[in-house]
Write a structure and sequence with these properties.
This protein is mainly beta. It is about 15% helix and about 40% strand. It is built from one helix and eleven strands. The strands form three sheets. Strands 6-4-3-7-10 form a five-stranded antiparallel β-sheet, with no helix packed on it. Strands 1, 2, 5 and 11 form a four-stranded mixed β-sheet that branches. Strands 8-9 form a two-stranded antiparallel ribbon. A hairpin with a 2-residue loop joins strand 1 and strand 2. The chain is elongated, with a radius of gyration of 21 Å. It starts with a helix and ends with a strand.
């Protein structure tokens, strides 16, 4: 490996580190709460994602509690830290693992295990940012949104 290649690798690593840590500069986030219901009933343990409509936003996620409520956070932010100002589409998903009916054998031990598959429990219209009807705008300050799903 030449010195030029080594310098390129070092530069890339340092640049990536600077971008990830932001040199101590944090993008301001704002408390963003989402309540998810399905036919009027709270949806527990659903994955809520705020997908930015344009470059001004930043992907944010949360998991609903027993009341269907969650606070979101950006992927680089602190827990419940909020969301960046911008326009978003809210997606909601609640997959569960189910037995597929197929079996697999551990080649080392010979033990047979059931193969599991992920099955979405909510209507798929809400799981995709292209089809979800929930468009919101996160503003400075506290934000609260409802995602009222229908079967």
């Amino acid at each position: 490996m030449t010195n030029k290649n080594i310098l390129l690798i070092i530069f890339t690593l340092v640049s990536t580190g600077i971008m990830l840590c932001g040199c101590g500069h944090r993008i301001p986030t704002h408390v963003t709460e989402v309540t998810v219901t399905l036919d009027g009933q709270p949806v527990e343990n659903a994955s809520v994602t705020l997908v930015p409509v344009n470059e001004s936003g930043m992907l944010a996620v949360g998991i609903t509690d027993s009341n269907g409520h969650c606070r979101t956070q950006t992927l680089l932010g602190r827990a419940d830290g909020g969301t960046v100002v911008g326009e978003y589409v809210i997606t909601v998903s609640k997959p569960v693992l189910k037995d597929s009916g197929r079996k697999t054998t551990d080649s080392t031990t010979g033990t047979v295990y059931p193969e599991m598959e992920s099955v979405e429990t909510l209507p798929t219209i809400y799981t995709n940012n292209k089809t979800s009807p929930f468009r919101v705008e996160v503003k400075s300050g506290k934000n609260s949104f409802n995602a009222d799903l229908k079967k």
